[in-house]
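Appendix C reproduces, verbatim, an entry submitted by the partner laboratory led by Prof. M.T., so that reviewers can inspect both the input and the predicted structure.
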Amino acid sequence: MAHIKGTRRKKFKKRLSELLHSNYFRFGIILPLFYLFTVYTAYYWEKNRSMYSIGDSYWYFLFAFVTGVVRFSPATFWGRTITLISSVVRICLYGTILAKVSSVFINFQNQRDKGLTKLKNLTKHFLLCGWKPDMETIIQAVLAANEDLTPDQIVLINEAPQEQIAQIKSQSAFKELNYISGDFSNEEVLKKAAVNKATRALIISDQSKGGTQLEIDSRAVLAVLAIKNLNPSIYVAAEIFDAKFESHLNMAHCDEIILTTEYEHNLLATASSGKGFSNVIRALIGIDSNSGVTVENIPPKFLGKTYGEFSAEQNSDSAKKSILIGLLLNTGNFQKRRLDAIREAHKNPNVEMVIDDLMKVKTLKSNEPVLLPDEDFPLRRGMRAIYVRVKEEPKDENADK
């Protein structure tokens, strides 16, 4: 106890010493003393001439310090001298304050442009972690694929050179982007980006620092672990080169895994068959969120029914310009699925079935697609529908005429 008190006393003395030696303390002492000096000196020389009480002197000089306007006309030489000196001091004071305030704002803006400030007011935003040379194209694709997302809701987290970030933000479409400089696998950096309030995160293969594919994939795994630790309810998608890291990401409850190298190899292999598969895939996977392969919510009225009933209703209307081709199972965030399973388990009186259901949750594969399931496949919560959709072209009113 005595040791704690001694430590507190030393800290108090240190802070008091720093305060007494600071320029703010000196300024706070000198300015009131100078004000009192001008008030009493001017009253001494101007008494019964331009001032008739000490209160007049207080008021005149206070008004002059605040507004810069002198409300009296000194009648003596020394009165004019004191008034002139106080005016010069006032001008210097205003200049100092203005310079200090300007430097604070300029420093804050510079820190923000460099990605060194903490984001405090963002909620439900999108984290884009990592850097690639074609970053502008990636940001445009993200905005096109998420119609509800605006540039001011995107936070870039990377260690790219400042001039490259400035080049992107110089464009009018991207000037509202937020930026945090640092290693996106570091928890302190993620806290600056308000990761605890974010809803989604995309981790791309980071090429800002170079390194091998092994190092890049390792950084992605560490980032997923850090993000999930700080915000278990966030939806995380991560890009990796090597499929051997997929198991590590699954253990970290990564919601979506993009195997870049595997996709490239499969695309090249299908193109080698000479059947035009690459063009088909390109048409199905577009950046337009309203065409190609789309994933949409299942209407609540079909939950508990079968896929056959749902498919019959969805594919019966040819005017929809879409075809139901399957289901996406275990959608959303792992944490949310776990909580939903616990809620459902509480409704089941059979303890063995409850334990079995909770164990199944841990082994569920996130976002598992099932193409053309059986007609009797049951529709449950956590599933979404997969469509192939054609973008409807706007009608030409002049064509009918």
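The radius of gyration is 34 Å. Additional entries are available on request from the coordinating office.
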